[in-house]
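In full, the data:

***
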Amino acid sequence: MNNFVFYNPTRLIFGKGSISKISGEIPRDKKVLLTFGGGSVKSNDVYNQVRYALKDHSCTEFWGIEPNPTIQTIRKAVELLKREKSDFILAVGGGSVLDATKLISAAGMYIGDPWDLVLHPALYKESVPYGTVITLPATGSEMNKGAVISNRDTHEKFSFYSTYPKFSVLDPVTTSSLPPYQIACGLADTFIHVIEQYLTKTGESPLMDRWAEGILSTIVEIAPKIREGERSYEYMATFMLSATMALNGFISMGVSQDWATHLIGHELTALKGITHGHTLAIILPGTMWVLRHEKMEKILQYGKRIWNIEDRDNEKAAGMIIQKTADFFTSLGLKIRLSENGVDRETIRVIKERFRKRDYHLGENRSVDAEITEQILNYVY
């Protein structure tokens, strides 16, 4: 096991009716900026619950944070934050609203353009404190300090790291009306967040392996039931907590991490607008196949423990395991070939060139460069 330092200060407030508790988490003298996406929080009653809980607080609302939040929208939110002199932010919605809020909170304490903080992380110094009410299980953004921000002008998408939420409220009841596509992307996102921290090297930590495998097995178990419409409180509660546990740092302690699939997926979102979780389901089978030899031992362990697949021929077993993983994503209702999702060969060329210019070397072994990325994309075309 590698050396590590672990820290996660986010207070998690979980369960039915938990939105009512936010009033006790935000000091009464704080001026609160509420950040929202579209109107779904009004149709599922989350908005009313939040406003009632904060009826004694001074609040300003910012609406319109889009899926794959853009710097163009974030700039407007930062202007409002500064104009109103808000000193606390509450993000209400899915991972995109939370991601945008992380940059809004940092830019609120910065005198320059918010995009500077994305391109030059050393400029980030401090943030306006914020909390979250999560309504879509997927990104795990409610219990980590990471965000992903897009730029419409340059068709780029980059990660940004600020600070942790002071608290996050998770009420599984809020997920009951989510559209099937969002559910599918959320399940895929959760699954692959775990894979990125797990499908690397063997023998680093049996404890982290088993913890990761527990989340993977849980998603495999509940996904068909949720997809078939069995959105009971218990199933959605399990899904919601799985998404949080997948990316709050707990399963990455002392082990290698990959994240190549994510970086490639970000380009598909930036260039073609494909939903983040969907891009990961497209890319992962290609990453596994092209890197199967350097990941072979862990692929075989994963296949045996999650899918009950074994064979004396390692190459054959790996092929079956990768196909089983791909079949899982298609069972969610996702199309997992680039050609099925409006991506042409020119897009592959553009991504390869971008990775070459950025001199990317991704993955746990830093072996995924522009050429390997091209192989991965061609495999899933």
